[in-house]
Amino acid sequence: AFGFYKANLIGSIGWLIVAGIISCIPPVSLIVPLMGVNFYTCVKKFRADGTKMSFGDLFDFSRALDKIVGPIVVGILIGLGFICLIIPGIILTLMWFFTPCVQGDRTELSFIEAMKESKRLTKGNWLKIIIFIIILVLLATAGILLLGIGALVTIPVVHVALYCAYDQCKGNYA
Fold first, then answer.
1. Could you tell me which residues come within 8 angstroms of residue 117 by beta carbon, excluding any fewer than 6 positions away?
2. Is 62 helix (H, G, I), strand (E, B) or coil?
3. What beta strand segments (E) does the chain contain?
4. Distances in Å between the alpha carbon of 118 and those of 2, 162, 169, 170, 173?
5. Using alpha carbons only, what angle is made at residue 102 by residues 100 and 105, rounded to the nearest 5 degrees?
6. Model confidence over 20-78: pLDDT tens digits?
7. C-alpha to C-alpha distances, 16 to 5, 156, 169, nearest whole angstrom
């Protein structure tokens, strides 16, 4: 995960900063999920053949509706699961943990198909995913505690690690 970050330092930090700024502008903030999905596509390309990320890759609007609506719907449904009771929220989080990664990897899928694929991939891996989530949260928190500057490293690395875990669950051990 850190290899991608080192090779794509400017793009990784730029993605985080631009997404943070854009998320503060209400109507424009809708493209933040699209940027996230496209970030996973950049990770996929880098892992496949070493293609470096270009900042413009984050703004690929092909299948934009699925890339925007998918993460929002998943987030709302998981949030509702946590509001109802904590356990449904945890179950939905585990089921749809890889949905944005699936969208970044298999761009031809609708967000609903990506949700189904995420559910299929996470089945039987819930304990590993829970441990992985705890590690990712600790890593991201450590970055934030370092005056926030560490987050410029840890948050992109956490997202790349998430994609790598997805890749392993689908059977690509590249």
1. 98, 102, 106, 109
2. coil
3. none
4. 24, 12, 10, 10, 17
5. 110
6. 999 999 999 999 999 999 999 999 999 999 999 999 999 999 999 999 999 999 999 99
7. 12, 7, 26
Tokens coding 52? 């470096």
Spatial distance between the Cα atoms of 20 and 108, rounded to a whole number of angstroms: 27
CB 94 within 8 A of CB 129: yes
Name residue, tokens 């109507």. 27
Residue that the structure tokens 């990320």 belong to: 53
Rounded to 5°, the CA angle 120-90-100 comes to 50
**Angle between the 126-145 and 86-95 helix axes, to the nearest 10 degrees?**
100
**Cα separation, 114 vs 137, whole angstroms:** 24
Q: What is the pLDDT of residue 130?
A: 94
> Do the Cβ atoms of 131 and 120 come closer than 8 Å?
no
Contacts of 99 (CB under 8 A, 6+ apart): 70, 71, 74, 111, 114, 115, 118
Opening angle at CA 49, ends 165 and 113, nearest 5: 50
* Residue with tokens 């929220």, as numbered in its chain: 89
> How many angstroms from the chain centroid is the CA of residue 148?
20
